# Entry
Amino acid sequence: MIQNLQSAMEAEQDLHIAKHVEPENLPAMIQPIMSLAQSDAERDMLLMSLLTAAGSCMPNLYFRYGLTGKKYYPNLQCFIVGSAACGKGIANLALELVSKVHEALPLVIAGDSSYPGFYKQLERQNGRGYIHESEGSVITDVWRSSVTNYNTALRKAAEHEPITRNRANNSSCIACPQLSVLLTGTFSQYKALVPSIENGYFSRLLTLFVNDQQAFNSRYVEPANGSNGVMTIAAQQLFDLCQALYKSRPMEFSLTSEQRARLGQHLETAYPALMQLLGDNFHSVVLRMAVHIERIAMVLSALRMADKLSVISHQYSDFHCSDVDYQTAEMIGNKLILHMAAAYRMIKGAEEVSVPKVQPLDQRQMLLSLLPKEFEMKTLLEEAKSQGVPIRTAGRWNDKWVEEGVVVKIRQGHYRKCLACA
# Structure
């Protein structure tokens, strides 16, 4: 049944991320930057780039996860996979965002670095860094001789595990690396870094596929209203935020009990449908998506502190996630896991293509599994919105469920799932 549902929804599934994020629900600092994007694909790339870059500039923030209460920091690692002329260049605005922070506090690590050079610079920066590379060929050419070392180092950094080096005349250890990574390139370049689905880095590296081709146009703008002015203001705001966080005490971020329960519900009911489609090897991606979602929520929440710099050190010893930021982070995670599923299938199939087509998975089944045994149309539409499913599409899916006997209509606007689906 799941495969039939998958086939039925392929023409309906919208895998764009930012399209389902209301601009006013984003932190004020990045709203003007997002307005510079001209297409859904550009908005997706820009949003993930900004969140990744901004997270590298947020010291003294962490959340605890798992039975051991392990600390995680706001460092995301993301690879944007796309062909030439798909507009990947917009991701470079993220580099402009961190430029002022980098001037005062060395942060950016060049992708064109040998592994010893990368390690030494990260060590000099006390384990903190941001790798931004828009040319995937640079990564694959330079890293080819040390791809195993890089892969291991990036994997450990994603979990803040110690990165050690032991040489005859030198040994050292970066105890708690806090490294953010934003890379763009083709699928073959992505696969050079993540050669197999069993590779531990696969589930730790967020993947965004872009299939859109950017149309030619001339974008002439007045400097005061163009990207330069917007980015100058945002870079200063991020610098001020970074400076305030450095001066503050360590602050623990946490989801509310209701948000934690909802995230757990995702893991228990929605994502297993993906594992049924893809197999048990996808399990690590499902589990780590919880960490990715909480990291994204933490970055969004921290960006909002830019308007409250004077009270950070006094009132923010701990802070909770707002419902708006959690819903945004959850929706981003729901879309990204579909992109990662596409990467999973392409790596497993070893297809030699520059940009795999992201085949939609069974989001219809995922949505159904999240509904209570008896539900109202209002409940369905609210859940659909949180999943990034258009209202009209959710309505069509419900009509199809009724037609297939998966859902029974009790009365107008009220429905009950059949026993097999409850």
Notes: The chain has 18 helices and 14 strands. The domain at 21-349 is CATH 3.40.50 (Rossmann fold).
